[in-house]
Amino acid sequence: MGIRERIIAILVNNKPGVLSRVAGVFGRLGYNIESLCVAETISPEISRITSITNADSDFIDKVKKQLTRLVDVLDVTELFPGQSAQREMILIGINLDQEGRAEIVRSIGMFDCKIISMRNDYCIIQVAGSREEVETVINFLKPLGIDKIARTGVLALRYKDSGF
Amino acid sequence: MEKTGAEILLQTLREEGVDVIFGYPGANSLPIHDKLEESPIRHYLVRHEQAAAHAADGYARATGRVGVCLGTSGPGATNLVTGIATAYMDSTPMIVLTGQVTTDLLGSDAFQETDIIGITMPITKHSYLVSDPGEVKSTVKQAFEIARSGRPGPVLIDLPRNVMAAKYEQSGNEDVTVSVPQKRHVERKKDAEDLQRIANYMNMSERPVILVGGGVKLARACDELSGLIEKGSIPFVSTMMGIGSVRSSNGFNLGFIGTHGNELANRIVHDADFIMTIGARFSDRSTSIVKEFAPLATIAQIDIDPSSIGKVIKADIPLVCDIREAITKLTPLVERKERREWLSRIEKERNILGKDRSMKECGPAGAFIRDVQAAMPEETTAITDVGLNQIWTVRSWETKTPRGMITPGGLGTMGFSLPAAMGVKVGVPDRGVVVFSGDGGFFMNIQELATISYYNLPVKVVVFNNGHLGMIRQIQDLFYGSRFNDIELGNKVDIVAVAKGFGIDADRISVEDPGAGIEKMCAAAGPFLLEVIVNPDNYVYPIIPPGRSNIDMIGGRQG
Ligand SMILES: Cc1ncc(C[n+]2csc(CCOP(=O)(O)OP(=O)(O)O)c2C)c(N)n1
Q1: Helix (H) or strand (E) holding A99
Q2: What integer pLDDT is reported at residue B191 of this predicted model?
Q3: Atom 4 in ligand 1: which residue has the minimum CA distance?
């Protein structure tokens, strides 16, 4: 299999320094992390890391073995598109003039997004959805002058309970 | 009762069976040294922190126990790094204690502050920063558990000065339960099936070979493995780290494989139809060109560390399992066989290659090493440095006990042998201890002669003086058009006088004509240094050029 986006989920002990150990493994193997999302799980002593890397099929095996060597890593698994729900959230800041303002208010209803802050000359829009959905919104808003964006990176959860 | 963090530390080390620490003090580790005096733990003051780490490593390799070293913060900690990396590469169980600046200064670029945890992250199995004296005991216990369990390795504990000095009220019931985090998916269901498959292959294959790695010693499975080999009449080869796991004189030993290995071992692996690899990670030094390694063989690989399996060579039958457990369960499944055909074919090959020639492959240096072995007590541990001296030694010294040969195979750390030998002697004082080093490696930790002399450790030090970085010279000679750049050490230094200056008796001989030199060294009650003058053209053959396969050697049998 060639290079494609691979999502892996990692359960780790929620302790200082663990993230840098995990990131170190990716770096040492020469992989770039495209997105990374870390937060505690339902058990506060365990965190869940979801990350995306563009890589070939060797990647999972190599990363999984090296990650599993880390004392604080409890589990590593790959999540596949057809078998898991995937969502990303983005905040988009846009500089506004009067025209743009009207345009945004008009068009925002077409998408599944929300204006969460609106000032005279600036607004922030929240978008949540699949990778494709959020990309569509970004592309649509680009001509209106996006000032900056912040993305959570993809979160994913397997459909059926399988321990992950 | 109230105790300081340092007292709890030392008490917990005692509970873990520690009797020796190799270290070097500084302001930020003083609370520990302050209390060491009252502890039954002996402290050996080295002359450079790198030596403390190598000594702890040597101690661990010689005894099978966990080695402990201690340095102060900043430069003390960074000096330990090469020793930690050496231990990590060869999976030595080791605890590295480092002093650290007080917790309020952490991250402020304080005097003698370095982020040693960050620096050593890729070369430790795990590490801890202890920020409260109440955590000392559980942290240390957990660190020991991690260092010696599974695939062993070094664990670093960073100890801020104020945490070591602070008083802490220990509760009456001091039982600390250690919990090393458990992995979720433990896929062990197939073990029995896989073992049966391995046994079937072993029983049915015509040309089986066992490849023995360093993991066998680490798992204390040497006797079990010898039993298996003898029951099935299965010839075995070793990696460099696996040497000495099985008595090399039992008739089934073919030597070690790889770049500098024995021709017989490399050729037989190439012919084998089944290889059971046990406790080896297929380093590039062992396999040479991967796609031409053992082209005819089905490969089974048994290892405790999943990351070692299939990393370099794809295993047809991978099995993650404790090595001793695997061999114990495998032995009853393997049929008792004579394997006349396979063994006689190997004997034929052995004769063609000729015992004589294999003796000559290390030149006079090889013969000299055999003479030293003959003169030393049977129970002797040889410690090699890195370079030609290392290859000569591992090829010429007949290892008779599992911990009888110690070599820094994974990292190839020049300067390892002298300090490691101190740890060995301290760990197993009743055994003979002999170092084989080149002049280059000897100079790298020469200061440890002072430690050896101060503690009067009866270590025998052989320094092969060829005036050059010998192994690099051979590589330049063969693969860089004999352009000998930057490798001449010269002969300006009077090594014998230097040794005497350190308070160590010494002598100089030539390798062809050792005269009474060997006897004098072996008879000396205390430490002794023997400088052995060697011709820089005394190389080691055969050798596998970079980018070639294991049977494509220079100086081997033609055709
Ligand atoms: C710390 C370190 N630096 C450099 C090397 C590269 N190296 C490998 S063998 C060798 C030559 C060793 O020379 P010497 O110690 O005189 O031993 P000889 O090969 O002559 O026996 C060198 C420089 C190394 N292995 N370790």
Answers
A1: helix A98-108
A2: 86
A3: B414
